[in-house]
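User: Hey, my collaborator sent me this sequence without any context and asked if I could get a structure. I don't really work with proteins. Can you help?
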Amino acid sequence: MKKIYRTLLLAAGLVTMVSCSDFLDQTSPSELDNSAAFNNTYYTGLAVNKIYGSLTQDQAYSAFMPIIAGLNTDCELVDGLGSDANNTSSERGNMNYNMNPGWTQISRVWNVMYGIIENANLVIDGINNSELIEEGRRERSEMLRYRAEAKTLRAMVYLDMIRLFGDIPFSTSASESDLGNVYIGKTDRDVIMDTLIEDLEECIFYLPWAGEEGYSTEHVTKGYAHGLLANIALTRAGWFIRESAKEGYITATENSDPTYPTQRCDDETRRRMYLLAEQYLVALINNNSHDMNPSLADYWNRVNLCEFDDSRENIFEIPMGLNQSGELGYTVGFRVNGAFPGGVSDEHNYGPRGNSSGKLKLTAPYYMSFNANDQRRDLTCALMQIRTRNGVYQENMLGNAPFAIYCGKWDYRKMKARTDGWWNAVLASDQKVCSGVNVVKMRYPYVLMMYAEVVDELYGGNAQASGRDCNLTAFQALSKIHTRAFGGDQVSAEAHLSTLISQNGLFNTIVDENAWELAGEGVRKFDLIRWNLLSSKIDDFKDTYRNAIYNAEWPERVWHKFKEDNFTIDVESFVFSDPSSSEYTRADFFGRESTRNPEDQTQLIVNLPSISSGLNREVRNRYLLPIASTTISTSNGRLHNSYGYTD
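Assistant: No problem. I've predicted the 3D structure and written it out in structure-token form, which is a compact way to encode the shape of the chain:
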């Protein structure tokens, strides 16, 4: 699964490597003139690989985008509660929407992401000026494929920058030597997205499907370009906070600020965008190059083991590198709290450091929202951690921690079966060992959910309708996801799905399915934003928790057994009334808060109000990051903050 990363290291290494060969003294494709670099398919390939390699930086897709950027939502929280939620010098405050232009991480993200865009622009310009793309040249198709990869990666990064900052500087050319095209102002995000859509419509023709021409899902392919284009179209059709009201746009009646309104495009443009999304989602579905792994457990086991999935559920996964990049499993995932102390089987040895997986947390209302038959609950929500307590090293329940549930999708307990050397590195080091687990940028269940959303929008909320030229109904698309979650029990899954649609409507069912399937994966926040549901869903989550505590709706205690190893908690053994058996261990549960004295209700009185406390404090629905003060000060007066932020 990591063949591409070795090539990425080669490409990245060329930047700093000094060779004894005169020819290789030209150390990087970007440092060669165009005739030397982009009139050679080998060097062009290395230049493209450099784009992939630059995605693996912490401030890009190793950590910030998959873990931090998607916080906070109604079910995903940064680990900042109480006074920490106001700490504007870290993500604990900023991702609670108490944002500060002086937060140093913002400028780092900005610089790294624009560095990736620059790498892509260099490739695109170089190929555009290459002799190898002339008609009749045997290298033409390979070069145009490389250009399509670069344009697709550039579109992905620009979309994410729009999601983070709104209107941003937009350039499709590499920086000029005199910096004449470097200091530019913002471009309207809709203009940018329209351009990205045009680029992707061109790119799709030149890209292979996954499995063709040696391309795995660690490359952008025709499938990802289809899915990305559809996602951009849906984003273009959706809601955004705006720097000022746009004429002809529709202003939201909820979650909108009078000065910085939340708006979307006109109905005609919106329909055109949904039709465009339908076209490319249908093409992706009908091609059958991608599908879902029939086993939820096997899918996530393969993710943790860094193994390709034969079904190609991952449409595109960004390749990371062992002990080089990749924070999944370390900064987010099942918690191993502290060093291995010995005294138990070495099977449970997770090294002299453990991990630091608590940056992203899940919530009690989210856990309680699952149907009891839904396997995603116990896979996604880890209510326990490994730690030494009272001198005993084993799994321990978290107790009354309603806003601090670990996301179990990435799990050291699964990763230890890897055979790539990662586990040996963990056992040998008391420092952080990057997991190298790939960041999945899009997977097939999300394609199915986008498709169901498009059908809902275009065909009147009819779950039995299907898209043009596609035999799959919206209900069937959701059923594929729901049935797998129910362990393959299609009858039970579809009965539950039918009840949800009957009670809540098709769209709201899609919104819920989005949470159950994708929590922790950096997707939900940006969908809630384009649906204009971020603020109201956060309010709903808080109301659900508050009412559950006031009305004593949740159990106060939970009893569980350990498995035969007397180390691992058996989640299938949970009972919520005293079983009067010594085989069970008791722990606090979320309802414990209901029985506390008011002065001791820290979760309810202190932590709950602090969550996402800045979202509507100064400007309503202010979810966008400010531009960093240092970025503004070096922009030659071209950039300024909006949405009430200072420069």
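In plain terms: The CA atoms of residues 76 and 526 lie 12 Å apart. You can pass these tokens on to your collaborator as they are.
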